[in-house]
Specification:
The protein is α+β, with helices and mostly antiparallel strands and about 160 residues long. The chain has one domain: Muramoyl-pentapeptide Carboxypeptidase, domain 2 (2-Layer Sandwich), CATH 3.30.1380. The protein is about 40% helix and about 20% strand. It is built from three helices and four strands. It has a four-stranded antiparallel β-sheet. It is globular and about 35 Å long. The N and C termini lie far apart (about 30 Å). The model has no long low-confidence stretch (mean pLDDT about 95).
Length: about 160
């Protein structure tokens, strides 16, 4: 991932999941879970759009199966470490993205009702920027509730 503007010469571009989760829970305490979900999903979408532009893949409309690789290089272990993007495919009329180790699920107990709002938004924004299409996105599976992944489904609008 290009680091064009590292403004922290000693600490670098990354901070901890613990600190990021504190922001999430603090905003939830202030706005309530629904208000916070709207804010974090929107913030994620803005970030995802910017990321696709930074990577030069906006408007590239790559095959659905290639989206996981592109997204993972941006937000996975070699990128910002937001999550691992493991799979992308078409399922009927839905575009599906499967993720692991999302920042939103980190440290949550099994059975938690937490959803991946920021992560969903970031993937959503990137997918829209890459494909040039508008989608409705939702999380349909969670590792916190017995799922094998945090699964995001996108329906074209």
């Amino acid at each position: 991932m290009p680091h064009s503007h590292n403004i922290r010469p000693e600490l670098g571009d990354y901070n901890s999941v613990v600190c990021f989760k504190a922001v999430i829970t603090g905003v939830e305490d202030t706005l309530g879970p629904d208000g916070a979900a709207v804010v974090f999903t929107r913030a994620g979408k803005v970030r995802g759009h910017a990321l696709a532009n930074e990577l030069g893949v906006a408007g590239s409309n790559v095959p659905v199966e290639k989206l996981a690789e592109i997204l993972n290089s941006a937000v996975g272990v070699d990128g910002t470490r937001l999550c691992a993007v493991t799979k992308s495919y078409q399922e009927g009329d839905k575009l599906v993205i499967e993720t692991q180790e999302t920042v939103c699920s980190a440290g949550e107990p099994q059975g938690s009702d937490r959803n991946c709002t920021f992560t969903l938004g970031a993937v959503w924004g990137a997918v829209e920027a890459i494909t040039g299409k508008t989608y409705l996105g939702e999380q349909t599976e969670s590792v916190l509730r017995g799922g094998s992944c945090d699964r995001f489904e996108f329906s074209e609008l």
